[in-house]
Amino acid sequence: MPALQLTIHKDRTDLGEAAARQAVDALIGTCREAGSATLVVATGTSQFEVLTSLSQASAVPWGSVTIFHLDEYVGLGPEHPASFRRFLLDRFINRLPQPPAAFHQIDGLAADPAAECRRLAGLVPATSFDVALIGIGENAHLAFNDPPADFATPHPYLVVQLDERCRQQQVGEGWFPNLDAVPTEAISMSVRRILASQLLICSVPDQRKADAVKATVEGVVTPDVPASILQEHHNCWLHVDRAAATALRQCDTISK
After folding, report:
1. What is the pTM assigned to this prediction?
2. Among 61, 75, 106, 132, which has the minimal tally of Cβ within 10 Å of its Cβ?
């Protein structure tokens, strides 16, 4: 059975730099061997340091890298401060040393979210993504696949309902002023499509995610803990800081 490759870093900065280095090495290697690469990029506070470091990687031939957007709120456009499109444009895409081959954005303002999912499905590669940068939520969600997550659907993108704990996390992180302001629906890459990646790099800082990390690493694989499915991926690297690792049984023996 495949096992998560777990590394515990001393702080968020070390975590972000290590995750970014791993992505850089993989993208350079894939572009050298295949001539191009695909990259899935997550958003949220867990990705701040990762994307800051990765956006400075001038050694990556970004003109040969196609970038995919992981998830977006239904009803939010890029002018909204909580929009994930805005997040990626401001914090990553517009900071790259050169433009990527393409950046496939999710349109949260699409008149028909289901049709937007079908449009996005036509853009994903027929084979696996090369690299996916992901995180997990306080409720252990993957992208916006809240528990109980759909592990079976073959559709690359879905319209999903956001549970209250997920929505409350967005308030706690400062993206929205209150719970009523948080959308109740989102377009999310599906669990199976996320897992269809040659390399998964999962970054999870902060004490508030310690229980989710423990359930992901040490619990059973169950849709009630969506990130637990990462245990079954053939090449998933989980980068956490010491705060996020506090609930793990083995945290004292593998910290760096």
Report:
1. 0.94
2. 75
